[in-house]
Amino acid sequence: MKIECGGDLKAKSIQNGIVSCKGDIYIKDAIMHSKIHAAGKVSLTGHKGLVVGGEVRATKEINANIIGSSLATKTIVSAGLDPETRDKHHNVQEELTESKSNLEKTEKGIKILGQIKEQSGSLPKEKAQMLKRLVSTREDLVGKIDKNEKLFKELSEKIASAVDGKVVAKRKVYPGVKIQIGNYYHEVDETHTRTVFKVKEGELCRFGL
């Protein structure tokens, strides 16, 4: 199941779904093994109020009764930053890694052809054209890397400053849950009751409700 919503979304439950919402998400019973992105907040409004498995992200807050399970089901909950920014940050990082790898290969090719030219005095037409293409590719890659490094820095700074979100577990949060707020992470290693996670003085902290 894949849903894209331009405003708020209300549903009884979501299971094995992919949901992207530009507003708030209100779920009565449970979000199970799904990938949820909300530009606003995610609220579990019913008595069950369960988030387990998958990944739930919200710009403002995530509010549930129970997060995770006694089986230590891997569950990621992330608040404080719009999901699109985090995804863009990840994609730019991957592009940088690929571009730098390609640049290294291109530099090696240019070096080898340069050595052949130095030893022979000239290059055959085919290899001369290859060298020209490699030099052009190098210029393109250097420009792309410079652009993405600046963008990556801007996005990293935006993530680092995103500390206003919170994650609330009104009844229980179990081991196996990973809490993320902005650039801060916390791996839950024991069961906690009536808990809120938020950033205070540069640390992701756990507070009682």
Structural class comes to alpha/beta
Q: Report how far apart the termini are.
A: 34 Å
- Count of discrete alpha- or pi-helical segments spanning 4 or more residues: 2
The unreliable regions are none
Output the helix-strand order.
EEEEEEEEHHEEEEE
Shape: elongated
C-alpha Rg (nearest Å): 24 Å
Strand count, sense and barrel status of the largest sheet are: 13 strands, mixed
The number of distinct β-strands equals 13
- The chain-level mean pLDDT equals 91
Portion of residues in beta strands equals 35-45%
Percentage of helical residues? 25-40%
Concise account of the structure shown:
By secondary structure, the protein is α/β, with parallel strands linked by helices. The protein has helices at residues 83-120, 125-160; strands spanning 2-5, 9-15, 18-21, 25-38, 42-44, 50-58, 61-67, 75-79, 166-173, 177-181, 184-187, 192-200, 203-208.
Itemize the secondary structure elements and their pairings.
Layout: E1 2-5, E2 9-15, E3 18-21, E4 25-38, E5 42-44, E6 50-58, E7 61-67, E8 75-79, H1 83-120, H2 125-160, E9 166-173, E10 177-181, E11 184-187, E12 192-200, E13 203-208
Helix pairs in contact: 1-2
Describe the structure.
- The protein is elongated, with a radius of gyration of 24 Å.
- It contains 2 helices and 13 strands.
- The protein is of the alpha/beta class and about 210 residues long.
- Helix 1 runs antiparallel to helix 2.
- Strands 1, 2, 3, 4, 5, 6, 7, 8, 9, 10, 11, 12 and 13 form a 13-stranded mixed beta sheet that branches.
